[in-house]
Amino acid sequence: MITLPSIEALDTHWWIEIFDNISREKAQTTYESLRFTIKHFDEQYSHFRHKSTISNLNDSGFLLEPDHMTIDLLQYGLNLYHQTNGVFNFLVGETSEKKDYNTPYTFTPNDESVNIPDPTQVLSITQEKILLAHGHVDIGGYGKGYLIDMLAYELKNTYQISEFLINAGGDMYATTKDGQPVKIQLEHPTDSDVVLADTSLCNEGFAASTTSKRHLESIHMTHHHVVDSKTGESHNNALGIYVKAPKAAIADAWATTLLISSPANHALTLQKHSVKVATYNEQEKKFNEWGKFF
Length: 294
Fold this sequence. Notes:
Layout: E1 2-3, E2 7-9, E3 12-18, H1 24-45, H2 53-60, E4 62-64, H3 68-83, H4 93-98, H5 119-122, E5 123-125, E6 129-132, H6 143-157, E7 164-168, E8 171-174, E9 182-187, E10 195-201, E11 204-210, E12 215-217, E13 222-224, E14 240-245, H7 248-260, H8 267-272, E15 276-281, E16 286-290
Antiparallel strand pairs: 1-3, 2-3, 3-7, 4-6, 5-6, 7-8, 8-11, 9-10, 11-14, 12-13, 14-15, 15-16
């Protein structure tokens, strides 16, 4: 097993374990390539970077001759909007900014009335141009997962590495280790020193989300970094959400979605897309699951 050096990007640490038996020379070449991919994605698609592609779109309202990845990322966001019946809306960037959800994730609510637009009505995507009539794009709800999937594809198809684990601050994708599922531990949402349970990944992505992190209190209520696209507010209807899916981007988006809307509201969709969910209730000290999570 070789663990590649960690990489800092998209406000988290990235590290990759390779379980295949490869030379140190190949490991170094692989690391340099993956590092370039991660850094390039961070520079182009982080809405925190003023000159990124996402920031340029938000500032100007249009992009001329967009590249294939930009088109694919935005189409992916639209697909998630439809898949979640409008719960997941990647045009919450303006809401986050008005509520000051900015690096380093401070929070001072200064505009309580924010209208989050319907992306199917305000976003037009063609090969020639992208037009954004209203709202700000923020791919934070699926960007890490999307990039993890890119890296997994690169490992498999460019370097013919079949057994590995990619970990981006808790968002993951794993194949197998010695032909067996890769074991992981579920961290308690409020106490990182406590392990709630063990589970495993086998050619699938994983993401977790909680209302207990990145939140502060305003005069009226407690808010966190996940915003309901229909109300502009943040809810606290679940303490911890843990999601497995065939792709890391799918797991990433649903981990966000299910902090706003209960898994029971999406049971058929979760089953259709092979998404497995476990929610942890601190008061009851137990898990509930949708699909065979454990």
